[in-house]
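**User:** My hope is that you can spare some time for a protein that puzzles me. I have put the entry right below:
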Amino acid sequence: MQTYDIAVVGSGVGGSLIASLHKDKKLIVFEKDTNLGGCSGNFKRYGYTFNTGATTLAGYEKNHPLKKILQRAGVRFDLESSEVAIRFQQGEKVIDRGVCFETFIKQIEKNYPHKNNEIFWKKIKKLDEKFWRLKHLHFAKYRFISYVLTLVGLVELFLVFRFSLFQSARSFIKKYLPDISPEYLAFIDSGLLITVQATSKEIPLLSLALGLSYPFHKVYFAKEGMGSLFEELLKGVDVRLSEEVVSITKESDFFLLQTTKQQYKAKKVILNATLYDSAKLFVQKEIKEYYEQFDFHDQSAFTLYMVLKSKEEFLHHYQILLDKEIPNAISKSFFVSFWKQKEGVYSLTISTHTKASFWLNLDKQSYKQEKLKTEEFIKKAFLENFVEIQEEDIVKLFSASSKTFQRYIGRSNCGGSLISLKNLTKMTSCKTPFEGLYNIGDTVFAGQGWPGVALGVSVLDKELYM
């Protein structure tokens, strides 16, 4: 049995990015599903291809970790972008988010007039720009040099942001947008749910700035579907699709991985599974206990998939804000992604936020009933907000809950960690206390989305052979 240098368990954003940087090693990637990319990939059903979940890509620009990783790996993505990154619709209000600040401010002033609009958004944008200019951001534990690099990063963070690091998002909003209207706050919170998986009442100022500034960067869409990005990243890599890792045993100088097909040996193991799904993989008690200490982040997505026949032209991304909460969800909004399969035919991915535990705890009959209730509500709201689409234009419609995601990609929760000084000591290092064992993805530093996970990958890359 040959010994691999690195075994990557999971082909999500983090697993695929780190694998792309180490193609010169004896490398193997395991994926439980038949498709690459986890909740950021795509799948086929009824003869159509659908994006599974996350459909936006940002950070493909100078000074950003993602761009640096792709350049080093020699990977080029086939992407397209438009002037409108995301269109927000809230009743009669329409706000197009894009890179042009002046255009955006005019729309904000029209829909949510406030004397401090320009001041607020300029400060938000400036904080974001400062963050992406940081040179030494690092977070890792369990090795002296890791702590030193983390300290250097923290010092830089404090020197750049000073006491802004300790300010909450809500206090900043209250200061610069006093007497903000409920509609305006709903618009802000809706944008944050897309990018940082939380609302302004739960996050610090820095996360607010990073989340709201996401569309100030170019937001891309994969022409051939999000799955094509993972095919490009893992080109030339030994990838084992439909092969689930069921147990991992740490030996003295290697790990023994048991899959649904056979056994493998690897010097280093990188888990692209969530922290909450990792304990079950290990035989050793101390490793199990390490992963069991992490509290489950009970947030997931309810996703509606749709095939639409229409000759109308649509933007790639919309966020629809409603005046009441969606049944069985924790949100009053849903995100819509249009992907043109061919002329006159679109596949749609429509998602909202929900509690993972709600769906996991239902019996079979209740699950079907509640799933249908949520499906019907979202479909009705979708048709009300896209008047050019008729119900008969919908060719296929089905949905996925946290239970579905657990079955196919091995995780029931969606959404990752937030960057804040307050929770930095609780954040999880990509390096574990066990030599040769690492984690990557949105449940370790630096959290959510392609930009956040790419930042985590850049840290992991340093830690692997330091």
About this structure: The radius of gyration is 22 Å. The longest strand covers residues 300-309.
